[in-house]
Amino acid sequence: MEDYERVESELLEQCGRVATLAECFVWLEQCNECIESLEELCRAKRPCLTVGHRQSAVARIARLEGARTLSLAWREIDAAFDNRVLTGAVINSGHIEPQQFLEDAGSVVLERVRGAIERHGSVKVNTASNGEFIAGDKKNCELYRCTNLREWHVNLLYVQDGDTGHFATIKHLFRFVGTQINKKGHKKYFCERCLHYFSSNEKLERHSEDCQKLNKCAIRLPRVEQRWLEFGNYYMKERAPFVVYADLECVLRKTEDAAGSSSYAYQRHEMCSIAYYVHCSYDGALFEYRCWRGNDCVSWFARQLETLAHRVKNAITTNRPMDFTRDDWRRFDSATHCHICERPFAPGDERARDHCHLTGRYRGPAHKGCNVNYKNSMYIPVVFHNLSGYDAHFVIREIATQFQGQVDLLPLTKEKYISFTKHVTDTSDKDSRKCVKLRFIDSYKFLSASLDKLASYLDKDKLKIVRSEFSHVSDEEFDLLTRKGVFPYEYVDSVEKLNDTRLPLRESFHSSLTGDTVSESDYAHAENV
């Protein structure tokens, strides 16, 4: 790295002392060689650079590239007529368009001419310019791909000349792009449908059999005005008015040993209880927590969701009048941007007063099109933690068959689903697509930690929902309630054991998976609870 540091310092020092055009080109060549060597050093796996050396190499590349593409500067050139002829060059490798380069270089040349007039007191000046433009490596790129190749077809080359262009026939595709993909000159065989190339004609024929069966596709490049990627689904910014958070518990029912079998299922998970909480985004009076214990808890949960869907349908279809005050009028008249898409209003845009149909609250000014598409969501998210890996196996059958409506699946495998959606057909109006939909999602996909770990990040004063459901207990009892507890999963092999009035022995907390039981401190905490 010391050698590169020395070369860099020499190049940066020589940059300001270049006197002739030949010296300038020599300096540029040395600078390019140094940059290429540094880039190869950064890419090489052996020897492996330390983080500090790699950052130092990247910084050197940036400094040399900056010196190479400095703003336009005048370079004095020695000439035979020192007394009468002032010769110089304006050099810059950062320009691409010749017209733009000439416009930018004009001010530099005029400044040198004015300086020469003031210095020599000339009364007449003749200026002659000679330009040399060096193009970099040219590469051919695909503009349009035809997927339906007929028996007779041709490949066309589009040659651009300023603002216009013309087409030329490509007689031999490999000769045209061969040097671009292969420096050694070995012949390549191109598939004229997808433009992949192969080393032999046999490989090309094998590929062509499959290539002709593929779906027709084409590359569609974005237009100039579409070159920036930005969020455009503004109608999805509104929060879902209702969200359901649910969890279930199972008993581990023991199974009989299969005689003569090397392996068998010694436990079966059976649902014994379920609980859910409904959160409303605009009315705290609609918050609801309910739970159910019993063998029919899955059916009960499905009926509860169907009832909730009908209630949500009635709430969403209501349209409360807008509460529009004088202050709202003043803000509406002085507004310059749409509060939905956050873009400014054009002089001819028709503005609309957007308000919440559920509460009547005025939300802000909006474009007419944005206001029309800004609707309440017909989806009710139903959130389970680890839905894909566990809970979905117990609830999806009842959800699919308990009431009418199709089920949309987003599968990961045949048994695991990322998400699934139940359409509640009874809530649809004339347009069957506008029915309420129950969308089951997995919170573990967004928060990849256990519920105990996630809950530990919250302070006690943040557990407002839990505190409201257990408002009758004291603060000391609430502290015991919110601490992570222990449960004898293998001991509870039936729903009836949940009715026991005494805590089972410490040995009953044994786990066959880990081979351990609970610690004495955890068992003492369970007794205290």
From TrEMBL:
| Gene Ontology molecular function, alphabetical | DNA binding; DNA-directed DNA polymerase activity; nucleotide binding
Query: Which SUPFAM superfamilies does the annotation name?
Result: His-Me finger endonucleases, Ribonuclease H-like
Per UniProt, residues of the DNA-directed DNA polymerase family B mitochondria/virus domain are 381-482
Q: Which GO terms describe its biological process?
A: DNA replication
EC number(s): the record gives 2.7.7.7
The entry's family comment says:
Belongs to the DNA polymerase type-B family.
The name under which this protein is listed is: DNA-directed DNA polymerase
- Write down the species: Cyphomyrmex costatus
